[in-house]
Every structure is written in C-alpha cells, then in structure tokens.
Amino acid sequence: MAKKDAIFDYSSHFDTEPYLADISATWTTNTAQVTNARHDRQWSGDPGATPGTALTGWEAGKWKELQVWDIANDSTYLTRDDGTDDKIDPTAVHRLIRNIKTAFNLPNPIDTATWPDEYTCNVDEQHFLWWSDKDRAAEPVALSNTSGGMKNNNGNHLQCALFIPISGWSDSGVDHNTGSWTVRPTATNWSTYNAHYQTLVDASTAAGSYTSPTLVGSEFTQTGEIVLVNLENQYRPTVESWTEDQLMLIISWSNKSYSNIKTLIDAAIA
C-alpha cells in the first residue's frame, strides 16, 4: 500500500494559525473539565480489557483530553465571524471545527443557524483537544481495531482522524503547530500487534523500553498542520523525546474509513 493510503497532509488548504492562540487559552481556561486518558492501554496486550495499573511514564496525567462539548463559550474568546449578523460565535475551537468541515466538505456539517448558540456532535464523530506531557515515556505504534483499543465515547471503533497540532510541536522539527507522524500502511494485523505487547507485559518491561512490533511492509513519515491519519494501520508520533507539552485538536470518525474521508476532502479542494 502507498503512503497516501495511511496519511495525508492537507495543511496547504486551510490556515489554522488565526485560531491557535485562542485555542491554547481555551485549554487553560477549561482545565477543570479536562480528564486523564489511559492511552497506555494500546500497548497492554489486550486494549479491550479494563486497564491495570499504568507503568511509570504512562501514569495518569501523561495524556489528557478535553471534549469540545465540555468547553464553555467563554466570553474572553467570543468573536464575530464577519460582522454581518448579531450572532456571536463560540470559542475558536468550535469555529475551527465548523470552518474545516465547510472547507473540506466533511460529514455532519454544522447548522449555521444554531451553531452560535448550541454545539452538537454527531454520535459517530468525536471532537476533542488532546494534551501530551513532555515527560511521558516514548510512544510505540498504536492501532485501532473493532476488537478493542480506540473507541469514541459511544463505544464505537475509531477508523480515522484529522490531527491538528495547536502548540508544543517544535520538537518535530518545523514549528510549534507542525506535527510529525510515522505510519505503516500494511501493518494491520491485530493479533500480531497484541502478541508483541503482551510479550513486553509478561517480561515486566519498563515503559521507556517498550518497542514497536517488527515492521511489516513500508514505513512512512509525514509532517503537517492538518494531517489525516488512518487509525486502522500502525502509527505513532515520529519524535520520541520531547521538550514541550503538546496540544492538538482531533476530529475522528467511527462510521467513515480513511478512504471515505480522503475522498470527500480531495473532491472539496480539487
């Protein structure tokens, strides 16, 4: 399979820069709504099971998430879109999602008649800010599968996502809002994936010494400010040592495959 089947950069088709400062401030303002995420369960040998005690380096607080529906329409960040009506938009996070959906013709477009007053999210999507601690242990490859692992808040298996870096990504080699991810388009076998991590669990391996499964097929790396990632093949952050905490917006789908979403975006920007 080709690189384009696993990851694609759409940065040149939408400018996220005007939203970044306000989104970072929104994260800070809404820290009371942030929850800890157990991302380490991806490497447990059985991601569908209830996770046990997290290893040092992956403990509670190393990854955090803020669901967009938990973000208050803080008056500090209220802005008018174009000044043509009396309605005021919610935070920059909500505006960014709405405008990306419009620009890329993504599923479940926002009803602009109600958007300034009520935020909604389709049950097959998930919109959230994802924060990663710079002192976390390295992240080996992750993989989403119907048998376990990554699911949305309705328990549905995640198939693909847009990764939109907000701040703290300079370690990836470009600037604060350009991330870098490595993907393996043909590495999709769930049993092999779990078996590798179960071996590490059984050996009481420290988090910092975890390795990714043996490479199957090709491996590719992509940097970008708006990157579509196929979650149904192995992927990970390219850089494994960080000097900054990282924040990004994630828009994910459980009822649309990577190819479904890529087809929609490609048609919209053609």
Topology:
Elements: E1 7-9, H1 17-29, E2 35-36, E3 63-67, H2 92-104, E4 125-132, E5 160-167, E6 179-184, H3 190-202, E7 220-224, E8 227-230, E9 234-237, E10 246-253, H4 258-269
Antiparallel strand pairs: 1-8, 2-3, 3-4, 4-10, 5-8, 5-10, 6-7, 6-9
Strand content: 15-25%
Return the structural class. alpha+beta
Run of helices and strands = EHEEHEEEHEEEEH
* Terminal CA distance: 23 Å
Summarize model confidence as the mean pLDDT: 89
Beta-strand segment tally: 10
Total DSSP helices: 4
Gyration radius, rounded: 18 Å
Q: How is the biggest beta sheet arranged?
A: 7 strands, antiparallel
What does this structure look like?
The protein has helices spanning 17-29, 92-104, 190-202, 258-269; strands spanning 7-9, 35-36, 63-67, 125-132, 160-167, 179-184, 220-224, 227-230, 234-237, 246-253. By secondary structure, the protein is α+β, with helices and mostly antiparallel strands. The chain has a seven-stranded antiparallel beta sheet. Strands 7-6-9 form a three-stranded antiparallel beta sheet, with no helix packed on it. Helix 1 (17-29) crosses helix 2 (92-104). The chain is globular and about 55 Å long.
